[in-house]
Amino acid sequence: MTDQKPVVRLDGVRKEYGETVALDGVSLEIRSGEAVAVMGPSGCGKSTLLNMIAGLDRPTGGTIEVHGERVDAMNETKLALFRRHHLGMIFQFFNLLDDLPALDNVALAAQLTGSKAGPARKRALELLDELGIADRRNIYPAALSGGERQRVAVARALMNRPALLLADEPTGALDSKAGEQVMDLLLDLNQIGQTLLIVTHDERLAHRCASRLVEMGDGRIARESALERS
Amino acid sequence: MSAVWRAARAAVRRRRLQTFLIGLVVLLCSATTVVSLALLDASSAPFDRTFAARHGAHAVAAYDPAKVTEAQLTAARTGVAAAAGPFGQIVLEPDDRSVGPLPPHAITVVGRADPGGPVDQLDVWHGRWPSAPGEIVLAFPPEENMDRGPLAEMTSVSANGVTLRVVGFAYGISDSADGWVTPEQVRALHPTGLQMLYRFTGDVSTKEAVNARLSGVTTGLPTGALIGAEPYLTVKEDAAEDLGTYLPLLATFGVLGLVVAVLIVGNVVSGAVVSGFRHIGVLKALGFTPRQVVTVYLLMASVPAVAGAVPGAVIGALGGQALIGEAFRGFGFGDTEISWWVWLAALLGIPLIVLVSALVPARRAHRLSAAEAITAGSAQRRGRGLRVQRALSGTRLPRAVSLGLGLPFARPGRTALTMAALLLGVTTVTFAAGLASTLNRVAEIDVQVSGDIGVRGLPSDFGTPTTRTDAQVEELLRGLPGTARVGVFADTELAAAGSNEPIRVIFGRGEVAELGYRAQLLEGRWMAAPDEVVAPSNLLLERGLKVGDQVAVESGGRRGTLRIVGETVRGPSGPPGLMADWSSLTTFVADPKLAPSDFYYQVQVTPGTSVAGYVAAVRAADSGLDVWDNTGGDEFTVIVAGFSTVLGLLLATVAALGVLNTVALDALERRRDLGMLKSIGMTPAQVVAMMVTSMAALGVVGGLLGLPLGILTHRFVVPMSASGARVRLPLSVLTVWSPAVVIPLVLTGVLIAVLGALLPARAAARMTIAQVLHNE
Ligand SMILES: Nc1ncnc2c1ncn2[C@@H]1O[C@H](COP(=O)(O)OP(=O)(O)OP(=O)(O)O)[C@@H](O)[C@H]1O
Ligand SMILES: [Mg+2]
């Protein structure tokens, strides 16, 4: 179910932090509807890769195109608007605002774009419902379980219907049961057409959700392979 | 210790901005504290300080040389800590009647070989001490400008058949004489008294106590030897009256400055420690004992605090000294050394506040487990704050703004301190602004009533008096180009029934009312009948009179009654007197023998006319007239405006720094939240809007609360200061709060907050957030 238009195209991307070379000439294409898993030892540059694609940090060299636009050449404001409309991000540690209940955390993503509170909360509730945690909408993050928190984070990431969902170790902080629920969620999303890029240490997650595996080592892509979903 | 020291050093290095901020805030606050304390100190004891510095005399005694010998006086030292004298003393009656600022009565001249000595050290602030007979130094408080003004014209004093050349001016805190000559000179004049200046051991706190000390000295002396003695407390009371105008103002600024400085230091330092809680957790996890952790934090805060306190205190001392010196010089209290306790308070007090502010949260860190400390580093979530956030997220406000409005609720303590500083900043600025416009209005009245040009007939010993009659002088003045209004005044003293002191009555003709005297009526109305008079407040106060009272006067056997129908701020230049219409002159004064020098003419010129040119024109027209420019800057206004501006700016800056610190801390503590918000598409402009809004909200509240407080302070303190000078202020100079003034003042709170927030908010907007999102 992949189509031919690349959503992400990286060409010779380098990132240096002083002496450290975090990315050493990475070229990669992700097509719409694909689910790509990135694996590799700690410190090989996986998170850095994700940051580059999201425009959270700038490459030292090379070009990055997402949705046909040069991310590396955008100014900060354009980047922010770009993230708003084309990207959703999920992190290992959820990054929810502790002083807002689940519903408002999700609604926030739409409200920043100027949506009114009413419609934003309505859509947020729909998403929470789809992810099976609508009953937890008024609970504050501190009182949610890890899995619930991650599902809230996923809902927030989906709020603006992003073309690409980036996830950095989404199950890394979860126990295996909660991890599996999140895995299923991601799989479902991909199956309804959501393009995914998942960084993970978890073989099972990769094999369950991804259609392609990218293995990294020392800032380079060591191997790419297609996966049969298990 | 070395591990602790190393950890502290690392903490200081890692948090350069924080460290720099602590240093800067402590520097500014120390400076503010020194200035404030110096103001308070100066306002509480300007007299005592100069008195101590100059070894003022507790009693100035005059003895009869016919009854006691110099040797007896020198020997009588019971209870005396230090004595000076005996000095020959004589009362001179200057031949020239009341010229310039010399007292119109007799002057006391003392023969003193030098201005120093163990008691009553004199400040020869101009010229030199007399070194030969025929020379005199006159007692006047220091004057800024000796080229112009009345003192410049005082070159000699003739009395009792001798002419003494004025070789200098000196000022003494003990008010022991009006002039000093050499001992030889005073001997030649045949002194009528012997002056002794005493400093006593024991109690001198009341006049009775001083008299008791004095009788201790005189017991062994022949009876009747002591002619008279003046305890220093009399001089002190007079001085207090002079200074009364400044003191409430200085004290107000002093208190405001002090409170703001303490608030900001407390906020910045405790904030630094709280934001370091995570680090505390890490240190504990590394195996630091709780005590060591607290030490690390105290060190971290105290190093920059000490680094800021010392230069801050020095800057404050220099600034404060200049400021206070300026304010007090005119009163003769030039010795504006910053007291040792002010230094001590700034150099120890501020670092102490730093330590206490650091210790309170550090002690909490002491109790926390490593894990608790790590989580305690983030803001606390409280019920009310959460409800507010919830409500805000449902509003129609742009989300960045509503998020910003919610931020202050996350840290109520920090918010309260920041807002208090903003509030007091606005109070100070409001008070300063109100004071400035009140002073402006007072100055306007002054300019109006003192006129632009003063003219008086030259007295005979100063040259050839004018041959013109007063009517001719008036005609001359009216005929000169540029004349707008002329008032002619002649004054005389009339015996007042029921009082042994005569009362001064100033008769005026011409455009007296239009010169501004009517505009500054405080109460009642302008005179309309020959027996009606208008009186300045200070005269009414002095005499215990009020509007509506009648004063029975007598002149050369002729009796009459003057009715006081109005009260004004002040009358024509010179000693205060009742203002009456010219037509009453002949009614009330039996034989008005007026010399040309008894007439005072006040001229106001049309706008655009050169005052100097006009003065020159009058001189050229008649060399027998003394003419002077009366517009000279109002020193008091300039000085008060000066220190209120300095303190207003200083406190506004300190408050802005407090805001800057709060935003920097918020951004640091919330960097994960900021990172997340950016990752879901918050633009840099929205980040700035959010952070700035959070502080602008405090600015609005601070402004709305600080403004009325400032207005109240102004309403309360300014009249207090005016009554210190025995002036009543017309309501018009106090009601300065038009919307055009108030609205910008409310906005100063927001302005200070926005200015303080902008820099760290922009830094937060630019902060790279890639890292914080992935790690925890
Ligand atoms: N901001 C930074 N400053 C300096 N070095 C950095 C920075 N961010 C990453 N690095 C370095 O770049 C390299 C790649 O880091 P990255 O976080 O991408 O690794 P990773 O593959 O995500 O590792 P992990 O599996 O542990 O999350 C590492 O050596 C890391 O130390
Ligand atoms: Mg990583």
UniProtKB/TrEMBL annotation, chain A:
Source organism superkingdom: Bacteria
Gene3D superfamilies per UniProt: P-loop containing nucleotide triphosphate hydrolases
Any GO CC annotation of this UniProt entry: plasma membrane
All residue ranges annotated as the ABC transporter domain in the record: 8-230
Keyword Cytoplasm: no
Gene Ontology molecular functions: ATP binding; ATP hydrolysis activity; transmembrane transporter activity
Cited Pfam families: ABC_tran
The keyword GTP-binding appears for this protein: no
UniProt KW keywords: ATP-binding, Nucleotide-binding, Transport
Protein's UniProt name: Putative ABC transport system ATP-binding protein
Organism: Actinoplanes regularis
UniProtKB/TrEMBL annotation, chain B:
Top-level taxon of the source organism: Bacteria
Major site of localization recorded for this protein: membrane
Subcellular location: Cell membrane
Residue ranges annotated for the MacB-like periplasmic core domain, each copy included: 415-620
Record-annotated membrane-spanning stretches: 246-274, 294-318, 338-360, 416-436, 646-668, 688-711, 731-759
Membrane-topology annotation of the record: Multi-pass membrane protein
Family, as annotated: Belongs to the ABC-4 integral membrane protein family.
Protein name as it appears in the record: Putative ABC transport system permease protein
Organism of origin: Actinoplanes regularis
